[in-house]
Design goal:
This protein has 215 residues and is of the alpha+beta class. The protein has one domain: Leucyl/phenylalanyl-tRNA-protein transferase, C-terminal domain (Aminopeptidase). It is built from eight helices and nine strands. It is globular and about 45 Å long. The termini are far apart.
Length: 215
């Protein structure tokens, strides 16, 4: 349902996500957005993220550094840099404003001065709504998700929303739940005092060790 008359401002976005609804655009050039409320919702259980042997090797062997919130706009631009994207100017601009007020965050994978992968999303209480991720090197987006799940666990989050379930996310432990189940989990998570920025930056060995303890 397109809503060209409603401004896409930060307050509207926060209200929508708190209700379990999120915006998308038909394309990067479409000035309008439509609101999505999936019947089946994708999530990654925070105690069920799967680190495969190949991903574990990448975490150990690929030269990289992890940072948070140092290149939010660049992460969004990289996520939108594909043939088809739902990230249009209203969504891009509104998320920049949400980032400036501490609601939206990025986790970035760097190799020196090169940004090679990352993910961004919106934090509401103990819920993290993942929006998109990108990779410029093999496994870089998976590495970003591994560090993100570790950070969410350390920060007190209980819900990692991926909106939809793809084969890629399913291979990492993603599952589908019903709309009603998602909303119930979201309501519980919204009241939690979680923090995205409080946990210290982790190294690969710590992420692998903590993940094996949860598995």
């Amino acid at each position: 349902m397109k809503d060209p008359g409603a401004p896409l401002d930060p307050a509207l976005m926060l209200q929508a996500y708190a209700a379990g609804i999120f915006p998308m655009a038909e394309s990067r050039d479409d000035p309008e957005v439509f609101w999505v409320d999936p019947r089946r919702r994708g999530i990654i259980p925070l105690d069920g993220f799967r680190i495969s042997r190949s991903l574990a090797r990448s975490l150990r062997r690929v030269p990289h550094q992890v940072r948070i919130n140092t290149a939010f706009a660049e992460v969004m631009e990289a996520c939108a840099d594909r043939a088809e994207t739902w990230i249009n100017p209203p969504i891009f601009t509104t998320f920049q404003r949400l980032h400036a007020t501490g609601h939206a965050h990025s986790l970035e994978i760097w190799d020196g001065a090169a940004l090679i992968g990352g993910v961004y999303g919106l934090a509401l209480g103990g819920a993290f709504c993942g929006e998109s991720m990108f990779s410029r090197r093999t496994d870089a987006s998976k590495m970003a998700l591994a560090y993100l799940v570790d950070r969410l666990n350390l920060g007190g989050f209980t819900l990692f929303d991926t909106q939809f379930l793809t084969d890629h996310l399913a291979s990492l432990g993603g599952v589908e739940i019903t709309r009603a189940t998602y909303r119930a989990r979201l309501r519980r998570a919204l009241d939690l005092p979680a923090s995205f920025t409080a946990p210290p930056l982790a190294d690969a060995q710590s992420v692998l060790q903590r993940n094996s303890q949860m598995s």
